[in-house]
Design brief:
The structure holds two protein chains of two kinds. By secondary structure, chain A is of the alpha+beta class. Chain A is built from one helix and eight strands. A four-stranded antiparallel β-sheet of chain A has the order 1-2-8-7, with no helix packed on it. A three-stranded antiparallel β-sheet of chain A has the order 3-4-6, with no helix packed on it. The mean pLDDT of chain A is about 85. Chain B has strands at about 5, 15-20, 25-30, 30-35, 40-45, 55-60, 65-70, 80-85, 90-95, 105-110, 115-120. In chain B, strands 1, 2, 3, 6, 7 and 9 form a six-stranded mixed β-sheet that branches. Chain B is built from no helices and eleven strands. Chain B is mainly beta. In chain B, about 25% of the residues are buried. Classes of the chains: A alpha+beta, B mainly beta. Strand 5 (about 90-95) of chain A pairs antiparallel with strand 4 (about 30-35) of chain B, so a sheet runs across the interface.
């Protein structure tokens, strides 16, 4: 954190809450740009429908056995190691832009997931994870009779 | 200074290609590894989400153009909760500073990575006699 305001009384104020959030994000982005961060790898998109969520993830050049997917309640974690391509002797490297190394991402979903029916598919370097919503978490219609 | 491959204006920010006036498709500059062995030049290009059939590679003289067309999914995926990347086409252009056998280039596509191997040409030496 760049600054810290040691006055708990101001916490209730909307302004300070927003300020703290801005402060957090700025600090994180400054740290990331200075030290580099793998925390944003791989980039992820999350889509939700009423009864399922879809997480798509750009992960080119992986093998399926190198990707570890774990689901617990409403948390999804994707973990893996991207191996660097082995170079033959006498190879000269001119450019190296492709990421390799270990990565770990945890995402929070808006509902709890039915772990048994999670479906993951990997094609053309994109990982698609379908996460169905847990039955008891689904919105239920309750009819109220006014009498 | 990189003598093997010269890059022609890599766009750091994405540019938008107007298509059919209404629908615009983003064009991204993909990450590339370039390696050189004794016999060949190897390009590895990240093109996640692009099918093998929609990749186009062309070499004209010393200009190498790599293109990948993105195909949007058939059915809607729901409400967007988090968007860290956007889908679009890929485009990158290089000038190769060495004599190559462009007709003997081999390309492979696996798990979103395009691998292109271009054999190098032995530079021909022509001795020119000086007339007396």
């Amino acid at each position: 954190m760049l600054f810290r305001i040691l006055d708990p009384q101001t916490k209730a104020n909307q302004f300070w809450r927003d300020f703290d959030r801005l402060n957090d994000e700025l600090t994180r982005s400054i740290l990331d740009s200075q030290f580099g961060s793998a925390s944003n790898f791989p980039p992820v998109n999350v889509y939700t429908k009423e009864d399922e969520a879809l997480v798509t993830c750009l992960l080119p050049g992986m093998e399926t056995d190198q990707i570890d997917i774990n689901v617990k309640d409403n948390l999804l974690s994707i973990h893996g190691r991207k191996k660097a391509e082995e170079l033959a002797e006498g190879t000269e490297v001119h450019r190296r832009e492709i990421f390799n190394g270990e990565f770990h991402r945890t995402l929070e979903l808006p509902f709890r997931v039915d772990q048994e029916h999670v479906l993951a598919k990997y094609s053309n370097g994109v990982l698609n994870i379908h996460l169905p919503r847990r039955e008891e978490d689904k919105p239920k219609k309750v009819s109220i009779t006014i009498g | 200074m990189n003598t093997l491959t010269q890059e022609n204006n890599r766009e750091l920010t994405e540019k938008v290609e107007e298509k059919d006036q209404k629908q615009s498709i983003r064009v991204y500059s993909p990450n590339v590894d370039v390696m050189e062995t004794e016999e060949s030049i190897l390009f590895r290009v990240e093109m996640p989400g692009v099918d093998q059939s929609s990749v186009e590679i062309s070499i004209e003289k010393d200009q190498l153009i790599l293109e990948g067309k993105f195909v949007p999914p058939a059915e809607p995926r729901g409400q967007v909760r988090l968007a860290e990347y956007r889908e679009g086409n890929y485009f990158r252009k290089f000038t190769i500073g060495k004599a190559i056998h462009s007709d003997k280039a081999i390309a492979k596509m696996k798990n979103g990575i395009l691998e292109l191997t271009i054999p190098k040409m032995e530079p021909k030496k022509t001795k020119i006699e000086i007339q007396k």
